[in-house]
Amino acid sequence: MNFESELSKGNFLITECIECKKIVWPPTEFCNDCMGKTSLKEGDFEGKIIEFSRQNEDYFCIVEIEKSFRIMAKMSTEPHIDQIVKISKCGISEGNYYFEVN
Length: 102
What we know:
Strand order of the largest sheet: 6-5-4-7-8
Protein name: DUF35 domain-containing protein
InterPro entries: NA-bd_OB-fold
Shape: globular
CATH superfamily of the largest domain: Nucleic acid-binding proteins
Structural class: mainly beta
Number of strands: 8
Oligomer: single chain
């Protein structure tokens, strides 16, 4: 199981170090703290909206996941700073990762 193959199936997983339990982002095979091997962790991860902007009918948010790393995600309803969200859709399109939250 690897991050990109799971993401292409619409599954969002987080890379976690087996040794020190640190969340490693972007996903890699080895921890950038202790160089331990990593594994993919499944879960219903929550994030907090840090900031956002709007283009036409869509909102684009910077979302901090698990108080550890940030991603850019699309949202179809008006977001609010500090709002708690979850990834509702994700994948790879034309070689680029995409995330949607609600």
